[in-house]
Prior knowledge:
Blueprint: E1 6-10, H1 17-31, E2 34-42, H2 54-79, E3 85-92, H3 94-105, E4 109-113, H4 119-125, H5 128-135, E5 140-143
Parallel strand pairs: 1-2, 1-4, 2-3, 4-5
Helix pairs in contact: 3-5
Amino acid sequence: MPILKKILCPVDFSDIHEQLIDYALEFGRGLGAEIEFLYVAPDLAVHLPFGVENDDVMHIIADLTAGAEKKMRKLLTTVRREIEADGHVVYGYPAEAIVEMAVQQGSDLILMGTHGKTGIHRVLFGSVADQVIKSSPVPVITVRPKT
């Protein structure tokens, strides 16, 4: 069995991300692994053709990133009491950024949540977890939090 020393755990700071963090801490403690948390601020440039001004998009991204960085600092303050952890806030397409970070950081495992989207929402927007699973050279474990 491979030795897992670094786990990448993408978070979105939604209402259910705390359950994912609990899983990450259990994995990390059990394996003696470091946890790298990641938040990806979405690329909103796709909205430019729909009449949204570039400056407006950049302000929205800056606000999202600043809020995420504050939440990441709070998360790290809490989890570092129990385990070695680091955090990153990046901008881009979530699935691509997750896989890229896993490779850059030398992650041995990606542990990520799913939101359990179904129906038309899944057809229209897809699943970040599905995209990561299909493209990651790193093993991926998904957790569907209880709602």
